[in-house]
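Troubleshooting: if your tokenizer reports a length mismatch, compare against these two reference records.
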Amino acid sequence: MEEELDAMSQEIYDKVKKIIVREARVDESLVTLDATMNDLYADSATRMSIADELDREYNLGTLDVEIAEDTTVGDIVSYIREHLEDQE
């Protein structure tokens, strides 16, 4: 079930969703906050390319940490949001 997101989290979610759809080549309807990388058929190479794109988009630097099979889209959104808040 999709939860309500504040404006900042929604903006991050929208960008993350676009990147995942492009990199994992999955239908946008599959990319929910609760979806895991496994649910999205993202193998390790795909997860690495998603991490690289997110790093470029958000200058994370620390997302060298591999996105695991059980990482959810919501986990990624939360991680990016925390990173951005730490930058302020």
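Reference record two:
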Amino acid sequence: MRIEGSYPFAAPRDVLWPMLLDPVTLANVMPGCEELETVGENQFHGILKIKVGPVQGKFQGEVTLADIESPHSYNIIVDGKGAPGFVKGTGSLRLEEDGDMTMLHYSGDAQVGGRLASVGQRLLDTSANAIIRQSLEGLGQQVQARMMAEASGGLGMAEAPPPTPPSQMQFAAGVAKNLAEEYLSPENRDSLIKGVLGVVGVLLLLQLLSNWWANKIARKVAAVLEKGGK
């Protein structure tokens, strides 16, 4: 499974970079993340509860950051397993600064096995993209909150409640949204329209056949009644 994309942050790179190394921040924005704690230098242990189609359960695994080049990039190594199966993957993250904006570029490859692999490639891809998208959206909100707190002299930072990761329902809604966007993408729009027109054509044909058959039966019944009346 290949994953890649980019996401813009309305913040300087020096603000975003330390948050990408903070397990507390990451745990609070990742859907289904129940735990992400430091177990060694640039090593973390995590527990993630996910639902992909009919398959759901918890994964436990290790996340290692390697080849760190502050504040530009690092590589990620993931090794997790649980009742739904296993996930092993490697990826990279790179920050590109453009004035007050920072573009985050990410890419990676993952191997999935067990019951999780039975849901199909398309649903796996869509679910993975939903996790990444919702995590980045949550991180963007945290970045803005931190910048506002710093601009106000740090007032209210200690009292601010920690963010809540997206619920399973919100995650499922994100997966459905991504699927809809995929099906309605320009490259799929023509095939979708043709499919809809095909279904409509079949329904019209069935309606015509039904009317023809009903009229034929009605004529036969009328003929029998006419003969009986004579």
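Descriptive notes for reference record two:
- The helical segments are 13-19, 23-29, 121-151, 168-183, 186-229.
- The chain has two domains: 2-183, 191-230.
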